[in-house]
Amino acid sequence: MPVGVHVSTSSARRGRVHVTGAASTAVRPVLEAPRRPARVLAAFPAGVYLEVRTELEPKVIAVITGEAVRLPNSVLLAGPLPRVEVGEEAWAGERGVELGALSLRVRRWWDPAPPLGPVDRAGLEEAAAVLARPAEPAPGLPGNGVIAALAAACGRGWLLGMATAAEQLVGLGPGLTPSGDDVLAGLLVTLRHLGAATGTGRAVWLAGWLAATVTFDARTRTTPLSATLLHCAARGEASPEVLAVLRGVAGHQALEPALRRLRHLGHTSGADLAQGVAIGVDAVLALGGRR
């Protein structure tokens, strides 16, 4: 999706940089709504996280360059970001973002939840074995009993057990995206996509109820960014790294290189997401994914 930067002579004199970008359809409701104030939650050389003052979800938008991880709530632009500080005010809406000297207009949309397509069912058990192998970096909650309980409940299709474990995991761990949230996000995306692709209706049904559980009060129990990513995962929306692993599980590309790339995202976020994917794959197999 091509994106471009255009600086006119008049805008340059005013210190404004006009940029076009490609936005995830996950943030379309917020970006097409009336213009609303926002604030900078976090700023990095390749990305800025903005919290929009709105009741719509997702509330957090990632404005990133091509060097950043493309989260499912991202707007991708070409060229550098302006230098901004945490807490600085911004605006979002009417298909645009204003941030410091940057004036961004969304020209294209991309899908963070493309259908998985047909699945090589014969390879699902082999993929599950690959996902189960110990690897570095390790997940952020190694040996956690709640995650083990979540996995056991998923394998049995026991909704109450899944919901009980999930409620304990929301917000569990440090950082902008706590480990418990990342595990849940990987699980939700896998149950939705792999369940639909294999015709395992029970997995899709469980994903719907689990999504309702983890998003109900996420904004009061975890960070704003992580709450947004849980809402995205509830709809099956994920980063390209997660979706690449699912394609590997489905037999559409090599699994192990995609898994290595995912596991090395962030400090433990990628490993935690991979742990959630592994639980989801095992659940789909147990609930009817075998031939």
Structure report:
The protein is an alpha+beta fold and 291 residues long. It is built from twelve helices and nine strands. The protein has helices at 9-14, 28-31, 124-132, 145-156, 159-169, 179-198, 201-215, 218-221, 224-234, 240-250, 255-263, 269-289; strands at 5-6, 17-24, 36-44, 47-52, 60-64, 74-77, 89-93, 96-99, 102-110. β3 and β4 (47-52) form a beta hairpin.
What is the helix tally?
A: 12
The pLDDT mean sits at: 91
Structural class: alpha+beta
Low-confidence stretches: 1-13
Strand content: 15-25%
Strand order of the largest sheet: 2-6-5-4-3-7-8-9
Helix content: 40-55%
CA-based gyration radius: 19 Å
Q: What is the molecular shape?
A: globular
Keywords for this entry:
291 residues, alpha+beta, 8-stranded mixed β-barrel, 9 strands
Task: Summarize the helices and strands and which ones pair or pack.
Blueprint: E1 5-6, H1 9-14, E2 17-24, H2 28-31, E3 36-44, E4 47-52, E5 60-64, E6 74-77, E7 89-93, E8 96-99, E9 102-110, H3 124-132, H4 145-156, H5 159-169, H6 179-198, H7 201-215, H8 218-221, H9 224-234, H10 240-250, H11 255-263, H12 269-289
Helix pairs in contact: 3-12, 4-5, 4-12, 5-7, 6-7, 6-9, 6-12, 7-9, 10-11, 10-12, 11-12
Question: What is this structure, in a nutshell?
Answer:
This protein is of the alpha+beta class and 291 residues long. It contains twelve helices and nine strands.
